[in-house]
Q: What sequence folds into this?
């Protein structure tokens, strides 16, 4: 009996060791996975904080530019118009049509500067609301007659909060800018639906489209995705070469 | 037959390692070299035994464990370096212990005796480093899933194998002192551990090449 017990001691010790090793590795794997999740969460948090800070700096810069446009360039253009009107009064009648045309152009310039200044200001969204801000911007672009632009607002029950609205207007401005600059479209449609539970914005065009797989990791698209992630919105992008592009942003409203 | 399978496993690991050599980082390149050296030593010792030039392969194991300690130290140096922090102490300790092992083999225990106290020192050295590396992995987690990290498999292979051999060789030493016979299961355990060890080494190299392909190490 004693011999059997003596012989089984190393066997028991070996089994205990193996069990210990297995349990140790399992515990390590569990703890590592936890540490990994924590690390991923902290990194996401950091990236979001960075994005928010970047956004705030950009907004501040745009507000400064808006102020400068209004205070400096707008004022100078107004003074120019006043001086020009004075000069026109002193000219013979035959020379007045050209100068009147110049005066009209300066009037147009003042109006455009004012509109651009207003569109850059983030505060106007808090004053007039997101849908109205987009509508104003739509009218400004439609006047340029670069393409046939449509706006459809199917529901305006409730709007997102101020900060989210500013994010959304910037996303909208970027998407519209892409349509005007890159798409070569002749027709584009902006669809907005803002119910109590959900806000949806869709911009589609009949332009040249692009291959998402090739440009999917470009900076523009990456920034767009990050901004959508920051406010908890879902981005859906459909585009095919020569078949236009359709971008939908969907945001649940709590 | 088992020995042929064991040598085949070493050879497969070596071939795989050399095929993807440039894709591996320096720690895994050293691992490939170590596996290949082990293969050469094992093959040569077996060949010399078969042609009856030597009676035992123990002298080869004495030299091999010195090489294993040296290589393992440098491998752990590079693995720890990738996690950041101070790791300079690994190299002098490795060199020191290599000389200790040579000393044990040359002066204290003859070359025809195996395992030696050097085997226990080697096992302990690697167990300590593997635990330290586990700690480093925990405080600087990667975003790669743990089962797809070559470092995890390499470290786990070392930790498991050298813990088993530490116990087994310790027990061998005790049994030899008692002039008793080693139980079959101990020999089986060591052989099984060897197979598992080099299989996990192969797996670690495989995942390391996958990570390198995606630009991560």
A:
């Amino acid at each position: 009996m004693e011999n059997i017990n003596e012989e089984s001691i190393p066997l028991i010790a070996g089994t205990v060791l193996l069990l210990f090793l297995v349990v140790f590795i399992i515990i390590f794997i569990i703890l590592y996975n936890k540490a990994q999740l924590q690390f991923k969460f902290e990194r996401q948090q950091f990236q979001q904080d960075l994005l928010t800070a970047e956004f705030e700096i950009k907004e501040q810069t745009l507000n400064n530019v808006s102020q400068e446009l209004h205070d400096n360039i707008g004022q100078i253009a107004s003074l120019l118009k006043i001086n020009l009107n004075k000069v026109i009064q002193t000219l013979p009648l035959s020379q007045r049509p050209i100068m009147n045309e110049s005066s009209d152009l300066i009037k147009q310039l003042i109006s455009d500067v004012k509109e651009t200044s207003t569109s850059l200001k983030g505060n106007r969204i808090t004053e007039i609301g997101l849908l109205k801000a987009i509508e104003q911007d739509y009218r400004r672009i439609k006047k340029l007659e670069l393409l046939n632009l449509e706006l459809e607002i199917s529901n305006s029950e409730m709007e997102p909060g101020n900060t989210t609205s500013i994010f959304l207007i910037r996303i909208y401005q970027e998407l519209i800018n892409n349509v005007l600059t890159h798409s070569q479209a002749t027709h584009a449609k902006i669809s907005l639906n803002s119910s109590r539970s959900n806000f949806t914005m869709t911009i589609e065009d009949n332009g040249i489209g692009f291959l998402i797989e090739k440009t999917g990791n470009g900076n523009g698209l990456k920034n767009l995705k990050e901004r959508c992630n920051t406010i908890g919105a879902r981005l859906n992008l459909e585009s095919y070469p020569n078949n236009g592009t359709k971008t939908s942003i969907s945001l649940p409203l709590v | 037959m088992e020995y042929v399978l064991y040598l085949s496993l070493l050879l497969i690991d070596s071939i795989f390692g050399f095929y993807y050599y440039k894709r591996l980082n320096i720690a895994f390149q050293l691992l490939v070299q170590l596996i290949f050296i082990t293969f050469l030593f094992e093959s040569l010792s077996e060949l010399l035994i078969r042609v009856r030039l030597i009676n035992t392969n123990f002298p080869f194991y004495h030299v091999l464990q010195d090489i294993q300690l040296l290589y393992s130290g440098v491998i752990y140096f590079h693995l720890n370096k990738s996690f950041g922090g101070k790791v300079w102490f690994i190299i002098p300790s490795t060199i020191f212990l290599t000389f200790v092992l040579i000393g044990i083999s040359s002066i204290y225990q003859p070359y025809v005796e195996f395992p030696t106290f050097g085997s226990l020192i080697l096992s302990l050295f690697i167990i300590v480093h593997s635990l330290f590396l586990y700690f480093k992995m925990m405080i600087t987690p990667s975003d790669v899933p743990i089962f797809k990290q070559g470092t995890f498999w390499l470290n786990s292979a070392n930790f498991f194998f050298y813990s088993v051999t530490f116990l087994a060789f310790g027990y061998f030493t005790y049994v030899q002192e008692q002039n008793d016979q080693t139980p079959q299961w101990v020999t089986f355990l060591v052989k099984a551990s060897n197979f598992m060890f080099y299989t996990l080494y192969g797996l670690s190299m495989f995942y390391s090449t996958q990570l390198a392909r995606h630009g991560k190490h």
User: Anything to note?
Assistant: Residues 2-213 of chain B form one domain. The two ends of chain B are 37 Å apart (CA to CA). Helices of chain B lie at 2-19, 26-50, 58-81, 90-108, 117-139, 150-177, 184-213. Chain B has a mean pLDDT of 85.
